[in-house]
Amino acid sequence: MQLLIFLIAYPILLFISILPFRILYVLSDIVCFFVYRVFGYRKKVVRENLALALPHLSEMERLVIEKKSYQHLCDMFLEMIKTISISKKEMDRRFVFKNLDTYNSLEKEGKSIALLLSHYASYEWVISMNSKVSYKGYAVYKKVNNKYFDSLVRKIRSKFDAELIPINKTAEVVAYNFSNGIQSLYGFVSDQSPQLRTKNYWRNFMGIEVPVYVGAELLSKKFDMNVVFLKVSKVKRGFYEAELEVLTTDIKKIPDFEIMDVFLRKVEQQIIEAPEFYLWTHKRWKHSGKKPKA
Prior knowledge:
Layout: H1 2-17, H2 21-38, H3 43-53, H4 59-82, H5 88-94, E1 95-97, H6 100-107, E2 113-117, E3 136-141, H7 147-157, E4 162-166, H8 170-179, E5 184-189, E6 201-205, E7 208-212, H9 215-222, E8 226-236, E9 239-248, H10 258-273
Parallel strand pairs: 1-9, 2-5, 2-8, 3-4, 3-5
Antiparallel strand pairs: 6-7, 8-9
């Protein structure tokens, strides 16, 4: 059944990928109508998230953000499909890294680099960075249940020389590269909600106490990596800019969890500046109020 579904869907995805951007965004408008108006995909989750994270806004103001966020979500989904056929020249025109010299200076230090980013703007097109750097690039991801679609996702995201690592294999890959002197760039989308355990690290995110995914920081400390934050901004429809900010070049001197605290504060700033470009369908606050008692 998985293969049948894939065989039906793949020609459609391939066709979408070769559409001109102008037509692609017309299709995105149509998809958005069905996703938002007809099916109401995760609309309850989005409204709950917006009410929790942006309580100072009126219901009408949150509704405006909600509608814009669905449009952005559909744009990003179709942009991911577009990656199948997009040229490097077109990608470079649409996704611009403003200060790659900051990154290049870190490569000269000879240590691996952890790149922290969030589910904001276009986290999918960040993969294009791998065609611009010397280090081997890896992106940590969650496997798709359908193995054929999982293979397609890996193919799409590896187009610009990025290699995907399943979450449960990350430590193994990082340890192997470290032991063999292979300097690498590891991309972590670290604003997701981790599994709830008794030893989770908790902090306020958008005013709500939640467990925090700390895998990126723990691996960075264990294998002495430089840590960088990537701020992605949406300039206009189909165009993005990314700016790198060094969080530390001496992580072993940083108190535990301080890197994740700084990272989440920067994500909060992104959300406050333009909340419509955050992934509100993600159940980031699902563990709110569930912190175990000490």
